[in-house]
Amino acid sequence: MSGVPEPAAVNAALVRAGVAARVTAVVPLSGGASSATYRLETEGAPLILQTAAAGTVSPGGLGRATMVAVAARAGALGLPVAPLLAVLVAEDGLGDGAVTGFVEGEALAPRWLKRAEYAQARAALTGQCAAALARLHRAPLEHWEGLALAGGSGAEQLERSFALYRLLGVDVPAFDLAFAWLKPRMPTAPARCLVHGDFRSGNLLIDQAGLAAVLDWELTHLSEPAEDLGWMCVNAWRFGVWDRPVGGFGTREELLAAYAAAGGDQIAPETLHLWEVFGNLKWGLSCLQLAHDHVSGRVRSVERAAIGRRVSEVSADLLHLVRHGDL
Protein backbone atom coordinates (compact mmCIF):
# COMPACT_ATOMS: atom_id res chain seq x y z
CA MET A 1 0.00 0.00 0.00
CA SER A 2 1.18 3.55 -0.79
CA GLY A 3 -0.44 6.94 -0.13
CA VAL A 4 -3.45 7.71 2.04
CA PRO A 5 -6.07 4.93 1.95
CA GLU A 6 -9.36 5.73 0.24
CA PRO A 7 -12.44 5.79 2.49
CA ALA A 8 -14.14 3.27 0.21
CA ALA A 9 -11.33 0.74 0.73
CA VAL A 10 -11.42 1.23 4.51
CA ASN A 11 -15.21 0.89 4.54
CA ALA A 12 -14.98 -2.36 2.59
CA ALA A 13 -12.51 -3.71 5.17
CA LEU A 14 -14.79 -2.67 8.04
CA VAL A 15 -17.79 -4.33 6.41
CA ARG A 16 -15.76 -7.50 5.91
CA ALA A 17 -14.83 -7.40 9.62
CA GLY A 18 -18.42 -6.77 10.73
CA VAL A 19 -17.77 -3.26 12.05
CA ALA A 20 -20.83 -1.00 11.80
CA ALA A 21 -19.18 2.32 10.96
CA ARG A 22 -19.02 4.35 7.76
CA VAL A 23 -15.77 6.25 7.17
CA THR A 24 -16.20 9.65 5.54
CA ALA A 25 -12.55 10.81 5.61
CA VAL A 26 -9.08 9.38 6.26
CA VAL A 27 -6.74 11.88 7.93
CA PRO A 28 -2.99 11.14 8.22
CA LEU A 29 -1.52 11.62 11.69
CA SER A 30 2.10 12.12 12.65
CA GLY A 31 3.57 8.88 13.98
CA GLY A 32 6.58 6.63 14.24
CA ALA A 33 8.94 5.73 11.43
CA SER A 34 7.73 2.14 11.25
CA SER A 35 3.98 2.78 11.17
CA ALA A 36 1.49 4.91 9.27
CA THR A 37 -1.39 6.14 11.44
CA TYR A 38 -4.69 7.64 10.29
CA ARG A 39 -7.73 9.11 12.00
CA LEU A 40 -10.89 7.73 10.46
CA GLU A 41 -13.73 10.25 10.52
CA THR A 42 -17.10 8.53 10.70
CA GLU A 43 -20.72 9.53 11.21
CA GLY A 44 -20.17 8.68 14.88
CA ALA A 45 -17.01 8.50 16.99
CA PRO A 46 -13.68 8.57 15.12
CA LEU A 47 -11.54 5.45 14.74
CA ILE A 48 -7.82 4.84 14.26
CA LEU A 49 -6.22 2.91 11.40
CA GLN A 50 -2.57 1.93 11.76
CA THR A 51 -0.57 0.09 9.11
CA ALA A 52 3.06 -0.84 8.57
CA ALA A 53 4.79 2.08 6.86
CA ALA A 54 6.19 -0.18 4.14
CA GLY A 55 2.99 -2.20 3.86
CA THR A 56 4.79 -5.14 5.46
CA VAL A 57 6.28 -5.79 8.88
CA SER A 58 9.67 -4.26 9.68
CA PRO A 59 12.51 -6.67 10.53
CA GLY A 60 12.12 -7.77 14.15
CA GLY A 61 8.57 -6.43 14.42
CA LEU A 62 5.29 -8.25 14.94
CA GLY A 63 2.51 -8.55 12.43
CA ARG A 64 -0.51 -6.45 13.38
CA ALA A 65 -2.63 -9.52 14.10
CA THR A 66 -0.17 -10.64 16.78
CA MET A 67 0.46 -7.11 18.00
CA VAL A 68 -3.19 -6.31 18.61
CA ALA A 69 -3.76 -9.74 20.18
CA VAL A 70 -1.00 -8.92 22.69
CA ALA A 71 -2.53 -5.51 23.36
CA ALA A 72 -5.96 -7.07 23.90
CA ARG A 73 -4.56 -9.57 26.40
CA ALA A 74 -2.70 -6.74 28.13
CA GLY A 75 -5.99 -4.86 28.35
CA ALA A 76 -7.49 -7.89 30.06
CA LEU A 77 -4.79 -7.50 32.71
CA GLY A 78 -5.94 -3.95 33.35
CA LEU A 79 -3.52 -1.95 31.19
CA PRO A 80 -5.10 0.98 29.36
CA VAL A 81 -5.21 0.11 25.63
CA ALA A 82 -7.31 1.13 22.64
CA PRO A 83 -10.14 -1.35 21.91
CA LEU A 84 -9.49 -3.55 18.87
CA LEU A 85 -12.17 -3.44 16.17
CA ALA A 86 -10.65 -5.11 13.08
CA VAL A 87 -7.46 -6.74 11.83
CA LEU A 88 -6.78 -6.19 8.14
CA VAL A 89 -6.31 -9.14 5.78
CA ALA A 90 -4.57 -9.30 2.42
CA GLU A 91 -7.86 -9.02 0.53
CA ASP A 92 -8.44 -5.57 2.04
CA GLY A 93 -5.50 -4.19 0.03
CA LEU A 94 -4.45 -1.86 2.84
CA GLY A 95 -1.30 -3.62 3.99
CA ASP A 96 -0.52 -5.06 7.41
CA GLY A 97 -2.73 -3.15 9.82
CA ALA A 98 -5.61 -2.88 12.26
CA VAL A 99 -8.45 -0.57 13.22
CA THR A 100 -9.01 0.40 16.85
CA GLY A 101 -11.26 2.67 18.81
CA PHE A 102 -10.22 6.28 19.37
CA VAL A 103 -8.87 7.26 22.79
CA GLU A 104 -8.67 10.95 23.68
CA GLY A 105 -5.22 12.19 24.57
CA GLU A 106 -1.93 13.60 23.35
CA ALA A 107 0.69 11.27 21.85
CA LEU A 108 3.33 13.83 20.86
CA ALA A 109 5.75 13.76 23.78
CA PRO A 110 7.30 17.22 23.23
CA ARG A 111 3.84 18.67 23.82
CA TRP A 112 2.80 16.87 26.99
CA LEU A 113 6.33 17.01 28.43
CA LYS A 114 6.54 20.79 28.23
CA ARG A 115 3.05 22.33 28.23
CA ALA A 116 1.66 23.69 31.48
CA GLU A 117 -1.72 21.98 31.11
CA TYR A 118 -0.03 18.57 31.48
CA ALA A 119 1.82 19.38 34.73
CA GLN A 120 -0.56 17.23 36.80
CA ALA A 121 -0.20 14.36 34.32
CA ARG A 122 3.60 14.51 34.46
CA ALA A 123 3.54 14.41 38.25
CA ALA A 124 1.47 11.22 38.22
CA LEU A 125 3.06 9.50 35.25
CA THR A 126 6.03 7.74 36.85
CA GLY A 127 3.76 5.90 39.26
CA GLN A 128 1.18 5.13 36.57
CA CYS A 129 3.79 3.75 34.17
CA ALA A 130 5.42 1.70 36.92
CA ALA A 131 2.05 0.22 37.91
CA ALA A 132 1.17 -0.64 34.30
CA LEU A 133 4.51 -2.36 33.74
CA ALA A 134 4.35 -4.24 37.04
CA ARG A 135 0.92 -5.57 36.07
CA LEU A 136 2.17 -6.60 32.62
CA HIS A 137 5.31 -8.29 33.95
CA ARG A 138 3.48 -10.24 36.67
CA ALA A 139 1.37 -12.09 34.10
CA PRO A 140 2.56 -15.71 33.75
CA LEU A 141 3.97 -16.77 30.40
CA GLU A 142 0.89 -18.97 29.95
CA HIS A 143 -1.14 -15.77 29.49
CA TRP A 144 0.62 -15.29 26.14
CA GLU A 145 0.33 -18.86 24.86
CA GLY A 146 -0.43 -19.29 21.18
CA LEU A 147 1.29 -16.07 20.12
CA ALA A 148 4.43 -16.08 17.99
CA LEU A 149 6.71 -14.11 20.30
CA ALA A 150 10.48 -13.92 20.06
CA GLY A 151 12.80 -13.14 22.94
CA GLY A 152 15.19 -14.92 25.24
CA SER A 153 17.80 -14.19 27.84
CA GLY A 154 19.67 -10.91 27.87
CA ALA A 155 22.75 -12.67 26.52
CA GLU A 156 20.75 -14.16 23.64
CA GLN A 157 19.24 -10.79 22.78
CA LEU A 158 22.67 -9.19 22.79
CA GLU A 159 23.94 -11.90 20.45
CA ARG A 160 21.09 -11.27 18.01
CA SER A 161 21.72 -7.53 18.20
CA PHE A 162 25.37 -8.08 17.33
CA ALA A 163 24.38 -10.27 14.36
CA LEU A 164 22.18 -7.40 13.09
CA TYR A 165 25.05 -4.95 13.62
CA ARG A 166 27.35 -7.10 11.50
CA LEU A 167 24.68 -7.54 8.87
CA LEU A 168 24.28 -3.77 8.50
CA GLY A 169 27.99 -3.57 7.77
CA VAL A 170 28.71 -0.27 9.54
CA ASP A 171 31.47 0.09 12.13
CA VAL A 172 30.70 2.46 15.01
CA PRO A 173 33.47 2.43 17.66
CA ALA A 174 31.14 3.41 20.52
CA PHE A 175 28.83 0.53 19.58
CA ASP A 176 31.80 -1.85 19.60
CA LEU A 177 32.65 -0.63 23.11
CA ALA A 178 29.06 -1.08 24.30
CA PHE A 179 28.88 -4.63 22.94
CA ALA A 180 32.17 -5.48 24.66
CA TRP A 181 31.02 -3.91 27.95
CA LEU A 182 27.64 -5.67 27.89
CA LYS A 183 28.78 -9.14 26.84
CA PRO A 184 30.13 -10.35 30.22
CA ARG A 185 27.33 -8.62 32.13
CA MET A 186 24.11 -9.61 30.34
CA PRO A 187 21.99 -12.16 32.23
CA THR A 188 21.84 -15.71 30.90
CA ALA A 189 18.64 -16.79 32.70
CA PRO A 190 15.70 -17.65 30.42
CA ALA A 191 13.05 -15.05 29.67
CA ARG A 192 10.39 -14.99 32.39
CA CYS A 193 7.84 -12.39 31.32
CA LEU A 194 6.46 -10.48 28.40
CA VAL A 195 7.84 -6.96 27.92
CA HIS A 196 6.27 -4.23 25.85
CA GLY A 197 9.64 -3.63 24.19
CA ASP A 198 8.97 0.02 23.30
CA PHE A 199 7.38 1.47 26.44
CA ARG A 200 8.46 5.12 26.39
CA SER A 201 7.49 8.73 25.88
CA GLY A 202 6.15 8.88 22.36
CA ASN A 203 4.32 5.56 22.68
CA LEU A 204 2.08 6.69 25.53
CA LEU A 205 -1.20 8.55 25.09
CA ILE A 206 -1.48 11.21 27.78
CA ASP A 207 -4.48 13.17 29.00
CA GLN A 208 -4.51 15.74 31.77
CA ALA A 209 -4.84 13.02 34.43
CA GLY A 210 -1.87 11.02 33.08
CA LEU A 211 -1.65 7.72 31.24
CA ALA A 212 -4.68 7.22 28.95
CA ALA A 213 -3.39 4.37 26.75
CA VAL A 214 -0.27 2.36 25.99
CA LEU A 215 0.42 2.37 22.24
CA ASP A 216 2.57 0.54 19.66
CA TRP A 217 3.05 -3.05 20.82
CA GLU A 218 5.00 -4.10 17.71
CA LEU A 219 8.30 -4.77 19.54
CA THR A 220 6.74 -6.95 22.24
CA HIS A 221 8.82 -10.01 23.16
CA LEU A 222 9.78 -12.28 26.04
CA SER A 223 12.54 -11.06 28.33
CA GLU A 224 12.93 -9.84 31.91
CA PRO A 225 11.23 -6.87 33.60
CA ALA A 226 14.25 -4.57 33.83
CA GLU A 227 14.42 -4.32 30.03
CA ASP A 228 11.25 -2.21 29.85
CA LEU A 229 12.42 0.02 32.71
CA GLY A 230 15.86 0.54 31.19
CA TRP A 231 14.29 1.43 27.84
CA MET A 232 12.24 4.16 29.48
CA CYS A 233 15.50 5.81 30.55
CA VAL A 234 17.09 5.99 27.09
CA ASN A 235 18.17 9.56 26.41
CA ALA A 236 16.28 9.84 23.11
CA TRP A 237 12.93 9.51 24.92
CA ARG A 238 13.44 12.58 27.11
CA PHE A 239 12.82 14.94 24.18
CA GLY A 240 15.09 17.62 25.57
CA VAL A 241 14.11 17.34 29.24
CA TRP A 242 17.58 16.06 30.07
CA ASP A 243 17.38 16.26 33.86
CA ARG A 244 14.42 13.84 34.09
CA PRO A 245 15.95 10.55 32.95
CA VAL A 246 12.71 8.52 32.98
CA GLY A 247 11.03 9.64 29.78
CA GLY A 248 11.60 13.33 30.51
CA PHE A 249 9.23 13.25 33.51
CA GLY A 250 10.71 11.16 36.34
CA THR A 251 13.83 9.95 38.10
CA ARG A 252 15.31 6.48 38.15
CA GLU A 253 14.89 6.30 41.92
CA GLU A 254 11.19 7.19 41.67
CA LEU A 255 10.67 4.60 38.93
CA LEU A 256 12.29 1.74 40.86
CA ALA A 257 10.44 2.58 44.06
CA ALA A 258 7.06 2.92 42.32
CA TYR A 259 7.58 -0.31 40.38
CA ALA A 260 8.33 -2.28 43.55
CA ALA A 261 5.41 -0.64 45.39
CA ALA A 262 3.09 -1.73 42.56
CA GLY A 263 4.09 -5.37 42.98
CA GLY A 264 7.02 -5.53 40.57
CA ASP A 265 10.49 -6.88 41.30
CA GLN A 266 12.96 -5.09 43.53
CA ILE A 267 15.32 -4.03 40.74
CA ALA A 268 18.80 -2.87 41.73
CA PRO A 269 20.13 0.41 40.26
CA GLU A 270 23.03 -1.44 38.63
CA THR A 271 20.57 -3.77 36.87
CA LEU A 272 18.62 -0.78 35.59
CA HIS A 273 21.90 0.75 34.39
CA LEU A 274 22.82 -2.43 32.50
CA TRP A 275 19.53 -2.40 30.61
CA GLU A 276 19.76 1.35 30.02
CA VAL A 277 23.08 0.78 28.25
CA PHE A 278 21.49 -2.04 26.26
CA GLY A 279 18.52 0.20 25.45
CA ASN A 280 20.72 3.00 24.12
CA LEU A 281 22.62 0.47 22.01
CA LYS A 282 19.34 -0.97 20.71
CA TRP A 283 18.19 2.53 19.76
CA GLY A 284 21.49 3.10 17.96
CA LEU A 285 20.99 -0.09 15.97
CA SER A 286 17.46 1.06 15.13
CA CYS A 287 18.95 4.29 13.76
CA LEU A 288 21.31 2.25 11.59
CA GLN A 289 18.45 -0.01 10.45
CA LEU A 290 16.22 2.93 9.50
CA ALA A 291 19.02 4.54 7.53
CA HIS A 292 19.64 1.21 5.79
CA ASP A 293 15.94 1.01 4.90
CA HIS A 294 16.28 4.27 2.99
CA VAL A 295 19.65 3.58 1.39
CA SER A 296 18.66 0.05 0.33
CA GLY A 297 15.37 1.26 -1.12
CA ARG A 298 13.20 -0.92 1.13
CA VAL A 299 11.46 2.22 2.39
CA ARG A 300 12.51 5.46 0.73
CA SER A 301 12.04 8.00 3.52
CA VAL A 302 13.72 11.27 4.38
CA GLU A 303 12.58 10.69 7.97
CA ARG A 304 14.43 7.36 8.13
CA ALA A 305 17.54 8.87 6.60
CA ALA A 306 17.45 11.73 9.12
CA ILE A 307 17.05 9.33 12.05
CA GLY A 308 20.09 7.46 10.78
CA ARG A 309 22.17 10.59 11.39
CA ARG A 310 21.38 10.29 15.12
CA VAL A 311 23.95 7.50 15.47
CA SER A 312 26.41 10.18 16.56
CA GLU A 313 24.12 11.18 19.46
CA VAL A 314 23.78 7.57 20.60
CA SER A 315 27.57 7.14 20.41
CA ALA A 316 28.06 10.06 22.80
CA ASP A 317 25.38 8.72 25.16
CA LEU A 318 26.93 5.24 25.24
CA LEU A 319 30.40 6.57 25.96
CA HIS A 320 29.05 8.65 28.85
CA LEU A 321 26.98 5.79 30.29
CA VAL A 322 29.83 3.29 30.19
CA ARG A 323 32.29 5.79 31.66
CA HIS A 324 30.15 7.59 34.24
CA GLY A 325 27.22 5.28 34.95
CA ASP A 326 24.41 7.76 34.34
CA LEU A 327 23.29 10.34 31.83
Automatic annotation (TrEMBL):
<dbReference type="Pfam" id="PF01636">
    <property type="entry name" value="APH"/>
</dbReference>
<dbReference type="InterPro" id="IPR051678">
    <property type="entry name" value="AGP_Transferase"/>
</dbReference>
<dbReference type="InterPro" id="IPR011009">
    <property type="entry name" value="Kinase-like_dom_sf"/>
</dbReference>
<protein>
    <submittedName>
        <fullName>Phosphotransferase family protein</fullName>
    </submittedName>
</protein>
<dbReference type="InterPro" id="IPR041726">
    <property type="entry name" value="ACAD10_11_N"/>
</dbReference>
<dbReference type="GO" id="GO:0016740">
    <property type="term" value="F:transferase activity"/>
</dbReference>
<keyword id="KW-0808">Transferase</keyword>
<feature type="domain" description="Aminoglycoside phosphotransferase">
    <location>
        <begin position="26"/>
        <end position="260"/>
    </location>
</feature>
<dbReference type="InterPro" id="IPR002575">
    <property type="entry name" value="Aminoglycoside_PTrfase"/>
</dbReference>
